[in-house]
């Protein structure tokens, strides 16, 4: 018995020492990182930070416990920090010490604390700017030749004496040129949304906007024969860009019509929730396999290339939706069961919601 007690007395200090050594190694590794790492307590106060964070925020030992917003007061950061729906995206902000540099902040909650990591993404930001400029410039340059081609094709196609074997060829060229024109227009819209990091915000009467979208959907729905329902449970509106929101929400409704077999049911809803206001489009269409859902908002990603071309899609619609929703403090949520239907929704946070009474 004495021998067992002795072994236990020896093993416990050894285990404790090993744990202490591991913690020291972890802290040393975090201190050596070039990225800023900050541990925040349940009151959003600074609990611990590494050397990179100390250099970036000019921290001192006396700053322990101070609120993170005392050091990072960018509105984008505060919104990201306080809106849980944006947690997976991170947020890009300009450096307050060097405006030509760009930082990315990522927040990871665990228990009652949070881990904030800040990366220098200046090089990536410039590469992304070059990509956006290239796409926008190329798309803009393509508009003129496409317009000319569409005009001539339309004129030739209307000739009454055109040989039948030529007529089919001109019809196909007209269809494909129109498709190219839609792709160019969507690329220009996406580039414009990406470049405009901020845009003028106004009160949006969501009842009026959704009624307009519903009427357009009914017109588009004539060849599909779906039953389309509009459910509005709140008169609350939004504070945002009406042009972009109309484009994004219409896109979701048109997609539901396209990918639901004829005679299906589609419901457009606007409801009040504890987190804000929720827009949703629900259908009983073909659904989406789980492996595709995470990639649906990627540019030109297609589940079935043949089916997408047949419906006239450009492959950019959901990418546009994603960027518009992000600019309005939310992101796209997709729930789907293959063969049973899909629900595309977004919950707009309270700081974007406006009561009709105070608009």
Report on this model:
- A hairpin with a 2-residue loop joins strand 9 (265-273) and strand 10.
- The protein has three domains: 33-120, Beta-Lactamase (2-Layer Sandwich), CATH 3.30.450.20; 124-195, Helix Hairpins (Orthogonal Bundle), CATH 1.10.287; 202-358, Heat Shock Protein 90 (2-Layer Sandwich), CATH 3.30.565.
- Helix 4 runs antiparallel to helix 5 (164-195) and helix 5 packs parallel to helix 10.
- The strands form three sheets. The chain has a five-stranded antiparallel β-sheet with strand order 2-1-5-4-3, with helices on both faces.
- By secondary structure, it is α+β, with helices and mostly antiparallel strands.
- It starts with a helix and ends in a 5-residue tail after the last strand.
- The model has no long low-confidence stretch (mean pLDDT 81).
- The protein is built from ten helices and 13 strands.
- 25% of the residues are buried.
Question: Tags for this entry?
Answer:
47% helix, Beta-Lactamase, alpha+beta, Helix Hairpins, 359 residues, 5-stranded mixed beta sheet, globular, 3 domains, 13 strands, 10 helices, 21% strand, Heat Shock Protein 90
What portion of the residues fall into strands of 2 or more residues? Answer: 15-25%
Q: Would you list the SSEs in sequence order as H and E?
A: HEEHHEEEHHEHEEHEEHHHEEE
CATH topology of the largest domain: Heat Shock Protein 90
Question: Looking across the biggest beta sheet, what order are the strands in?
Answer: 2-1-5-4-3
Distance between the termini: 79 Å
Q: How many whole angstroms does the radius of gyration measure?
A: 27 Å
What is the count of β-strands? 13
CATH class of the largest domain: Alpha Beta
Fourth-level CATH superfamily of the largest domain: Histidine kinase-like ATPase, C-terminal domain
List low-pLDDT spans: none
Structural class: alpha+beta
| Count of runs of 4 or more consecutive helical residues | 10
Major sheet: 5 strands, antiparallel
Number of domains: 3
